[in-house]
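Take a look at the protein record below with the fold in mind.
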Amino acid sequence: MPVRGAAAEHQQESKAAGIRHVAKIVGMPDDTLSTGTRRAEVDAGERPGVRSDVAADLHRLRRENAE
């Protein structure tokens, strides 16, 4: 495995462990915290995906078109 791939894998494992740790402290499922973290990364432009504000606009426009 290339060094870059190993480093990225290690970073992901560390991030997952951190999320599990924090979720346990605050008393929430780690899936919930992980989903929120991913959503925040998308909204900040750090991860590919549809931002929350854009998704909300699309949902509103589709609902308006259905009326």
Helices lie at 3-26, 30-43, 52-66. The two ends are 54 Å apart (CA to CA). Residues 3-66 form one domain.
